[in-house]
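Thanks for the sequence, V.! I ran DUF2971 domain-containing protein right away. Repeating your input here for the record:
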Amino acid sequence: MGSKLQHLLSPTPPDTLYHYTSGAGIKGIVGSLSLQATMLHYLNDAREFKHGLSVAQSALRHRGQRDSNVTHQELLSSLADALDRIEHLQICVFCLSEEEDLLSQWRSYCPPEGGYALGFHIPTLIDRLADNQGLRLLKCTYDPILQRAAVDELLNEILPGHFSALGSGVPCKEVVEAALAMFISKFSLVAATFKHPSFS
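Predicted structure:
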């Protein structure tokens, strides 16, 4: 795993992170003693969901323009086009902030009459997450340069094997399907960390 992916997928968090919510939200958390995650594509607006896919498409198209191998170009173009057909990623998120008192968070997640910044002791939360398969604590980034670098690292991991398959005579359609499945399974986790710069 490259350093950019490592930064996003294996963060070293502070001891406390905060969840901004309404009075009803905090009653639900305390009353049920549970946290409810939200599907990624329901957050903020459509840009939030599409943003990660557009970063990946841009990286794929850029590689296609720089690669002189026609079959590589075809694979890269097909992958970029296939991302257009993805309506949502099967990812649920529960958002936390490093800031205990941040105006943008109050405005975004709390009603005008007021809300709460509920602090979570992160070592305890991580222990609880470890008991639930598939749950991870990830660090979000609004930085488009870091986002692009993370996608490039992911593509560097995935593409060589599929380029080799093309060279060995495997039909392009089969390679595209296999590459897309592998890319989406790995990229889904990375995409959950990408935030649109307009929300920073």
